[in-house]
Please model this.
Amino acid sequence: MNQGAIPDESPRNLQEQLLLQDAKAGNSRAIQGGPDDILGDVSRLVALYGGNPEDWYKITSIQAFTINVASVQVHWFENAKIFQQVELKFKRQYPKIAPKNL
Amino acid sequence: MIVRCIANTGEVLPENYIDPARGYTKKVELPLTVGKEYVVYAIRSWQGIVWYYICDDNYSYYPIQTPAPLFEVVDNRVSKYWQFMLDPNGVLRFAFEQWFTDPCFYDKLTDQEEAEVEIFEKVKELMDAEDFSLPPLDVAVEKLRETVSV
Model:
């Protein structure tokens, strides 16, 4: 796992921007995290950003947009106690036969 | 194990599942189709709350935890690929081998790491096609006795 802070990724296009806005508006849910499902990355998150291990969650957009043949979701880490959101990433899953540089 | 979706909104969730930190409010609407059946790839339970890991309607490469009360069980036979783990803090899990052999397996899978995505693709293929049929008890025991007596 990465040891340093990972900068937020920017949306590549309008659709990704809309997906991000929708997710940040509350259309999101936890993939993992909290007291019963501690994140593997939690030591790094606590060291970098503070908080307690059980306060950190990995969040995903509930929506997944199809953009240039890829199924796209947005993920980030969130400290639920102080609503800190960090390390935003777009997850683009391409069909196996499709080129990745569309 | 196969479950059928009976609801896809937070309105029907019991109070102990309402957890805004996880995004579960009364208003949440999940990408599930009422009446559709979903294979359960793993289960986590803690303090009376049960999560099924399923590939919902927005599935792309990982199964996601989804509250059990949104489903009814239509096939309660468990996968032969499952293993059981009880964490020291009381969290109970059923999942396939790789989930347990690497404590960061699910972190890596959801991070879209290639090796873990490939493992889940294979596990999913096997579990989706899993044959649960067993011979009747009398036939099975007769077959076993024949084998043992040889």
Q: What stands out?
A: Chain B touches chain A through 28 residues (CB under 8 Å). Chain B has four helices and eight strands. The CA atoms of residues 21 and 55 of chain B lie 22 Å apart. Helices of chain B lie at 97-101, 105-110, 114-128, 137-149.
